[in-house]
From TrEMBL:
InterPro entries: 6-blade_b-propeller_TolB-like, CAT-like_dom_sf
Record protein name field: Condensation domain-containing protein
Family matches, as SUPFAM superfamilies: CoA-dependent acyltransferases, NHL repeat
Superkingdom of source: Eukaryota
Amino acid sequence: MFSWFQQNTPIVVNEKQRLLGSAENALMQASQQCQGYMKFGEVLHIRGPHISSNTLSMAINHLQRRHPVLRSRLQINPEKSDTYILEEDDTVQLKIRQIPRKRVDHQIFWRQEWRERERDITAIGQGLTEFWLLQDPEDDNDDNSPREIVVICEHSVCDGLSLSNVAHELLIALAGEDDSIFQKSLNWPITMETAIQQSNNRVQRWLPNASSGTTIVGGTQGTATNQLNFPETVLFDKYNNLLVVDRGNNRIQFFNLTTC
């Protein structure tokens, strides 16, 4: 019965580890083999007082308390050498590069620096995110000078939206406006495949060696008994009936697979 469904590798190995999904592994493999090809970043253009490395480090520590990925090391899966694991470690120190530049270059300097460093790969055993701090040393006493913080991450564990969210939270941490959001950790993020299936509001059956699946439950969003609304988890009872946690409808759906 279980072979009817696409067998995704379990996301969480234990509470401190998470396996990358198939799409995430593909992106990480490309980044490792093609010298950082799948890295991307976001630039924060800031006007304000001097930012010390210690101040930035403390703000990053706030983010690490909130996001498991930011406090994790990239490790090779010991069970399958061509796949990767995120291993949570509270001692992870993300790389911070302090790069001096002239004020007149504040609009373009980060581009030049990116070209020089874009081929850097994420080392096994290290974090997947790094930060650059760009400012003019002669502006240390100027409270309204331009400064840039560049956040760089592996595409396998983030997209543009999530990176923008981290950048926004970094500004909150630097300003000390709402430290309460950093008091509790978020859960491990779901895989890309899971997110796509949730958005499609369906459960598919995959036969062995099939190149495509067949929708057996859902397929359209709604509240009817044959519809789903952002399903979260698929389970089986001892009789191999299908149970779907239909989160958007605040219910658990029961399906007899012999009739599906």
